[in-house]
Amino acid sequence: MATTLKKLNSTLTYLEEVRKHLSRLPCIDPNSRTLILTGFPNVGKSSFMNHITNANSEVQPYPFTTQSLYCGHTFYKFLQWQVIDTPGVLDRPLEERNNIEMQAITALAHLDACIIYFLDISEVCGHSIAEQLKLFTSIKPLFKNKPLVIVLNKIDIRKYDELSPEEKKNIEDTTKENNAFLIQMSNLQGDGVADVKAKACEILLDYRLTNKTGKVEKSGQTSNVLNRIHVAIPKPRDGKLRPPVIPENYKVNDENFEFNQETLEKKIVKNSVRELIEKNGGNSVFYVPDRSNEPI
Predict the structure, then answer these.
(1) How far apart are CA 88 and CA 101, in angstroms?
(2) If both were cysteines, with which of 43, 103, 139, 283 could 118 make a disulfide (CB 3.0 to 4.6 Å apart)?
(3) Which residues, 6+ apart, have CB-to-CB distance to 242 below 8 Å?
(4) Which of 54, 22, 52 is nearest to 37 (CA)?
(5) What phi, psi does 6 have (nearest 5°)?
(6) What is the pLDDT along the chain (296 residues), one digit of tens a residue?
(7) Residue 88 near residue 41 (C-beta atoms within 8 A)
(8) ∠ Cα 97 100 106 (to 5°)
(9) Of 237, 224, 211, 208, nearest to 34 (Cα)?
């Protein structure tokens, strides 16, 4: 046995390395409600994730701080949501992207989620607004027909009103063309963070509900059920009126009712507990634990 184990030593070592690598991968549920954060490096994705989840992603002022997918969880309307922070993506052909960028590309293409694209309008990330919009245009086929929120981040450094008319027009045109929602936000001051989270969750709920209804209709389940249901509405076959009938035995006259009421009042004897004890021989013979004067 020792000789056999020595022969399998290299194989077992490889399996151990694979186990360690799999344990470091994020646990992503493809069927869960998911928000995916994407954009250029250093635009504020990890800071936003730290705001809305319990994750503790590393935040540094240099690009590619996030080098793998990070998964955090948050709650909205008493439902659990998973938030995926992706590595920054650069605007270049697919064959030139490295392994770090391909993780973000894979998540955008294969996960049915709401996409939150970050635009750094202060351009502190090192890329102009035009370059960031160009990146959005190049990767938007990956999340076609998915709910989309475009976040104008770092408004604490540069306000949206301070942008040039051309930059505003490009941003608004891109938003309209893709049926996206445009929200201003600042991670540093916390402005708009809750609005981004609420809007992304709301449109994803509507998207999932629409897809679910469409799948049911496409499969024919709705039509099959309707074919087996028949609603019958009775129609009169003649002109006769048929009012409700009360049998004579169950009719009550007013006189009989008054007589019966008086008879019942005469038969009802209201005795207190103290009177019952005296009638039954006194305390030594008859005993009731509760000596109240309420009638029984």
Answers:
(1) 7
(2) 43
(3) none
(4) 52
(5) -65, -35
(6) 889 888 888 998 999 888 877 766 666 777 888 888 888 888 888 888 888 887 666 555 545 555 567 788 888 888 888 888 887 777 666 666 667 677 777 777 777 888 899 988 888 888 888 888 888 888 888 888 888 899 998 888 888 888 888 988 998 888 888 888 888 988 888 888 889 889 989 989 888 888 776 555 555 555 566 666 777 777 777 777 778 787 777 666 555 545 455 555 555 555 566 777 777 777 767 766 655 555 55
(7) yes
(8) 80
(9) 208
Q: Say if strands 70-76 and 79-85 run parallel, antiparallel, or are unpaired.
A: antiparallel
Rounded Cα distance between 217 and 211, Å, is: 10
Reading the block at residue 137, the tokens are 């245009």
- Amino acid identity of 156? D
| Amino acid letter, 202 | E
The amino acid at residue 139 is I
The sheet carrying 181-184 orders its strands as 70-76, 79-85, 34-39, 114-120, 148-153, 181-184
State the residue for tokens 């063309």: 177
**Secondary structure string (H, E, C) spanning the chain:** CHHHHHHCHHHHHHHHHHHHHHHHCCCCCCCCCEEEEEECCCCCHHHHHHHHCCCCCCCCCCCCCCCCCEEEEEEECCEEEEEEECCCCCCCCHHHCCHHHHHHHHHHHHCCCEEEEEEECCCCCCCCHHHHHHHHHHHHHHHCCCCEEEEEECCCCCCHHHCCHHHHHHHHHHHHHCCCEEEECCCCCCCCHHHHHHHHHHHHHHHHHHHHHHHHHHHCHHHHHHHCCCCCCCCCCCCCCCCCCCCHHHCCCHHHHHHHHHHHHHHCCCCCHHHHHHHCCCCCCCCCCCCCCCCC
If you search the block for the tokens 């002022």, which residue do you land on?
61
Rounded CA-CA distance 94/109 in Å is 13
